[in-house]
Design brief:
This protein is mostly helical and 680 residues long. The chain contains 28 helices and no strands. It has a domain of 178 residues: MetI-like (MetI-like fold), CATH 1.10.3720.10. The two termini are 42 Å apart.
Length: 680
């Protein structure tokens, strides 16, 4: 059989024609289009920025849509009226009365009962129903059962620390809000995750909702929940549930979807039903990963429950908030230290619980009798401690001595003042350099440009960086921000967010590349980064406030400290993920260290860099708005102001909407830009 070669237009190719044909095909239209798009990005972004700056120089200060003092727009006043309508309709509207009101009453009653049980004195009693000794014994026993002896000892030490720092009741209140919220998350999240693992259609519907929930900064959740549930424990629990549920749902769906298919098929061949297969095969095999999801949910709940002090939530967030408002660094440090200890105890306990079954399997039967004896002894001791704490005041009220909180707070205040006085000139110089060199010029460009000029420039930049989908997101989000009447404040928040993100990415590039190239450094530094990610964001305001006083720069410093760990880890993982064969080939070609980083590892890890920029932006934004508590200004300050002044509630709610729109805008642009670079 003879095979006839053909040309691209279908005609036969003669031997002499074939030899004369060019060895490389001409560029395809797709590749040419990509080249044009790349060139447009390279030259288009600077061109847009240049036109924007020129327009700003000519039109500076015009059409900025800035609000002054307590000014409100018609939309803000409408939101105030909406709140009044909600309040008036709580007893007449069936949904607000029986559904929202029923949930609110149930949560308030549950929280009050739990507080009377362990943390607050009910009417007619000087102390809670179960005193400190009984509570400590019960929690220690629970830790021993679910996580082992070491975790039980860690829990006992942590509980003692809460009391001796002077925050026993507040610590238990924070634990109660976290526990109730996580319990509700489990009731909602586990079935939802199971359904997502079973149905692609259901997963396709739920996943965008989860993306949105995790994109929205925590502050933006507060005001809408107050509108529905009012100020108090119910709002605190519900906002914590909304914030903490997505990690558990995602991890549950992932864990069940990752179960070995062979085990599932073997179970199916034995005639098991879907429920039996889930109960006997899938859930046991996914148990460890699901516990990791519960741990993530607990960390998110603790973080949000602390912030929920702004809407009347009980717990340690309240003393931190009060201390920040009074600029009392010592008190803020002590209460923040209690929050950090709680985060560490919960994280380590749940981590140990995730591997508990493996530990028991390795130890076998030789320690079973010891564990059983310890369990029986612990149970007897716990019952005795509970009875004792209900009978004797010494076991019901936490001892006042030794008092660790006051001396630590005084020492920190003194140390802070001494340190600031000794390095005040240096910190002031750094603060002034960043403020006058970066913050003020960028804020002037964003906030003092006419809104239509800034809006068009941001839209064009979104299209150049992320394509038409990013452009659509920019149009929608900019329209929402304009509708809230807070364009100028949103641009101020965008300024601090961009400045902090630049610093975060510089740190991520420097430290992440170092960790990715040095296993020893990664071994030492990564536990520090992991520990930093367990600390609730409220706490990061304390060191920033101690060093730099109130202001935008303080909010930026706190945001950098909060967001840097996740960005550094993503960059480090990307560098480590570069194939070893590629690195070896580059080394054999005589590539030096700097060339290896610049021409091989960073280009091949660009997807990780894009993800780091995306996550860094989202983390920074969530912290920048919290920085409104320490003079950060912008939308975060308006949210806080809306809680404290009734007439400004509508403006605070509008600020929450604008924060959401800004978060979605930044997330979409960075995600689509990273995806486009990946395709390129």
């Amino acid at each position: 059989m003879t095979v006839t070669d053909t040309s691209t237009d279908g005609r036969p190719v003669a031997p002499d024609e074939e030899s004369a044909a060019p060895s490389t095909p001409p560029p395809t239209p797709t590749r040419s289009r990509r080249a044009r798009l790349a060139a447009a990005r390279v030259w288009g972004v600077p061109a847009v920025l240049a036109v924007w700056v020129a327009g700003w120089l000519v039109l500076k200060g015009r059409d900025t849509l800035a609000l002054s003092g307590a000014d409100t727009t018609s939309f803000h006043r409408w939101l105030n009226g909406l709140r009044d309508s909600f309040d008036a309709a709580r007893d007449t509207n069936w949904f607000l009365k029986y559904v929202v009101g029923g949930v609110s009453d149930a949560l308030d009653a549950s929280m009050q009962w739990l507080q009377y049980l362990v943390s607050q004195a009910p009417a007619g009693r000087p102390v809670p129903e179960v005193g400190w000794l009984g509570v400590a014994a019960v929690l220690t026993l629970v830790a021993f059962v679910v996580a082992g002896l070491r975790s039980a000892l860690l829990v006992a030490v942590g509980l003692m620390a809460f009391g001796y720092l002077g925050y026993w009741s507040d610590s238990l209140d924070l634990l109660l809000v976290t526990a109730v919220a996580v319990a509700i998350c489990a009731v909602i999240g586990l079935p939802t995750g199971i359904a997502m693992s079973r149905s692609r259609a259901f997963s396709a519907v739920v996943t965008p909702v989860l993306d949105m929930m995790q994109t929205v900064p925590a502050f933006a959740y507060l005001t809408p929940l107050v509108l529905l549930f009012g100020i108090g424990s119910a709002s605190a629990v519900m906002v914590t549930v909304i914030y903490a549920a997505p990690p558990l749902i995602r991890v549950t769906a992932h864990a069940l979807s990752s179960v070995d298919e062979g085990a599932v098929e073997a179970s199916t061949s034995l005639g098991t039903t879907s429920w039996q297969r889930l109960r006997t095969v899938e859930m046991p095999m996914a148990k460890r990963t699901i516990i990791v999801g519960i741990n993530q949910s607990i960390m998110a709940a603790l973080s949000m429950a602390t912030i929920a002090a702004l809407i009347g939530g009980p717990g340690l967030g309240k003393p931190v908030q009060d201390a920040l408002q009074k600029l009392d660094v010592g008190t803020a440090f002590v209460s923040g230290l209690a929050i950090v200890l709680m985060a560490i105890v919960l994280d380590r306990t749940m981590t140990a619980a995730s591997v508990r079954q493996e530990v028991l399997t390795r130890t076998g039967d030789k320690h079973r009798r010891v564990r059983l004896a310890l369990l029986v002894a612990g149970l007897v001791g716990t019952v005795a401690a509970v009875v004792d704490s209900r009978t004797f005041l010494r076991a019901a009220r936490f001892p006042t001595s030794p008092d660790l909180g006051s001396p630590i707070g005084d020492w920190v205040s003194h140390l802070s003042k001494t340190f600031v006085n000794s390095v005040g000139s240096t910190t002031s110089a750094v603060k002034d350099a960043v403020t006058y060199g970066m913050i003020n010029p960028l804020q002037s460009l964003l906030a003092e440009s006419p809104f239509w000029l800034a809006g068009v420039a941001i839209l064009v930049l979104a299209v150049l960086l992320g394509g038409w989908r990013a452009g659509v997101a920019a149009v929608v989000c900019e329209g929402v921000i304009l509708g809230t009447g807070l364009w100028n404040e949103a641009m101020i928040t965008l300024t601090t967010t961009l400045v902090a993100t630049v610093v975060v990415m510089v740190l991520a590039a420097l430290i992440g590349v170092w960790l990715g190239r040095s296993p020893k450094a990664d071994t030492v530094v990564r536990p520090v980064l992991d520990a930093a990610q367990t600390i609730p964001p409220f706490v990061y305001l304390v060191p920033a406030l101690a060093l730099f006083d109130v202001g935008r720069f303080t909010a930026i410093v706190a945001a950098v400290i909060y967001a840097a760990p996740v960005a550094i880890k993503l960059v480090a993982d990307g560098i480590k993920g570069v194939p070893a064969e590629t690195v070896e080939a580059a080394e054999s070609a005589g590539t030096n260290r700097w060339q290896m980083i610049r021409k091989v590892q960073i280009p091949m890890a660009k997807s990780s860099l894009g993800l780091a920029a995306n996550q860094g932006l989202i983390y920074v934004l969530s912290m920048v708005v919290i920085g409104g508590l320490v003079g950060g200004g912008g939308l975060g300050f308006l949210v806080v102001q809306g809680f404290s002044q009734s007439t400004l509630f509508g403006r605070g709610l509008a600020a929450g909407i604008a924060i959401t729109a800004l978060g979605v805008l930044l997330d979409r642009i960075t995600q689509y830009a990273a995806a486009r670079r990946g395709r390129g």
